[in-house]
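worker-03 picked up job from queue 'complexes'. Input manifest follows; two sequence lines, order preserved.
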Amino acid sequence: MNKEIQKKLVKNWFKILQEMICKEIESLEKGKRKFISTKWSKNKNKNEGGGEYRIIKNGKIFEKVGVNFSEVYGKFSKKFRHKIPGAKTNPNFWASGISIVMHMQNPHIPAMHFNTRYIYTSHGWFGGGIDITPCFKDKKLSKWFHSEIKKSCDRHNKKYYSRYKKWCNKYFYLPHRKEPRGIGGIFFDYKKDNWEKDFNFVRDVGITFKKIFRDIIIKKKKIKWTKKDKETQYKKRGRYIEFNLLYDRGTKFGLQTGGNVEAILMSLPPIAKWN
Amino acid sequence: MNKEIQKKLVKNWFKILQEMICKEIESLEKGKRKFISTKWSKNKNKNEGGGEYRIIKNGKIFEKVGVNFSEVYGKFSKKFRHKIPGAKTNPNFWASGISIVMHMQNPHIPAMHFNTRYIYTSHGWFGGGIDITPCFKDKKLSKWFHSEIKKSCDRHNKKYYSRYKKWCNKYFYLPHRKEPRGIGGIFFDYKKDNWEKDFNFVRDVGITFKKIFRDIIIKKKKIKWTKKDKETQYKKRGRYIEFNLLYDRGTKFGLQTGGNVEAILMSLPPIAKWN
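worker-03 finished. Artifact:
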């Protein structure tokens, strides 16, 4: 298939998914809270694409959710070329993605993160993942969550789950604290085995995330929490911020390549605390 | 002077200053709040020095202050050698320093930061600085603050103030936000002109900080603040965190060389917020 058609299909899917997930979240809020949408351009003087981020705040269930869609293109600066596959000889790139971070009112509902993306330099690849960050140990939830992810991966390739789970654990880790950010999930990158199959998998990861966050919320939303539980959540969010600002590649990449600051940092929680 | 004696003198001064500043803070809290001190060792199995950090929280004036003293030594890893002056040929290092960050209850009192350090590889140098981060524009305070710093610098060398002020503005800057962290002050590094004079200057910077923070607090502590002012402060602290985790060299250096996490991250405010 023509690569321009591939890009268009991928981009359109990310847009549709953004819309679907925002609708789902608003319906969980019973329509009483709505997303606020902001469109942005990467470069004021030149057409280098842009995106649309949507934020909902102060809901009954969701304390803050950012749902970010972007489609950007241009040339990598010299500084970046050697870091990006296929960019050494040809610095032109095209990238589109959707990323979502959810911070919850109820400390018994984990913070949840999802992202899928397609990048094209001299060749194209997919990346993405799902991972969740509970504040409290919850073996039952953890088992259920991983089994849902596994089911979804197994539909595509029996090797995906264990491979991408390992990658996720390795990636979402705070070396200075010697602790994981959350309880993992899946993480994959540089995926370019078979475009049709890869895109199919990427779509399924999005659908799976939509199902998983809804199911977790339905399971957990009635649990009462104390002020002390909320404090625990604020501290856990402090760690989340440490990870995102100290280590997250996407955050660094975005900030260093002139991405939209609000869209990149929408992942940060509304309130966090430190000892 | 023998370099071992130099190290001892510097280290002892930093310890004395830690004690003096903690006493000053406790006296501003009228003795109703006390610092909690924690001693730490860099390496459990080997003598590589360590330090003592002191934290006071929930005072009438101070919401959280960390006062960190350290004296560490060892060998730079291969990864670090090329980044440190004088470490390429001889990876052994010795470093001692004091660093202080103050987060205030009253949003009309700026957050304040001070640090001085002495590092010895195949040669020794001093570094340090003072800078403050108000939440609101306050021309009068800013003018007074910079003139106090200037007076102190001018006692040593008429060129210091303008040189170190520029360095400070350049250093404490958030490129992704295109905004400074605060209103600056002074910042200096690799200072190895004349050991006696440099040490004299470094001591004076410490004394100046002690006088400045006290004077600012006395000037400002009676100003009433609203809930909205406090919210502004929480947001400003969000930027402070972004700077410290994304850009601060000391934070990165400390975390990557196995420094004490609590001592390094004591600079983070107790609560912060993001939009």
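worker-03 released lock.
The beta strands of chain B are 36-41, 49-57, 62-75, 92-104, 111-120, 124-133, 173-174, 179-180, 185-191, 271-273.
The two ends of chain B are 54 Å apart (CA to CA).
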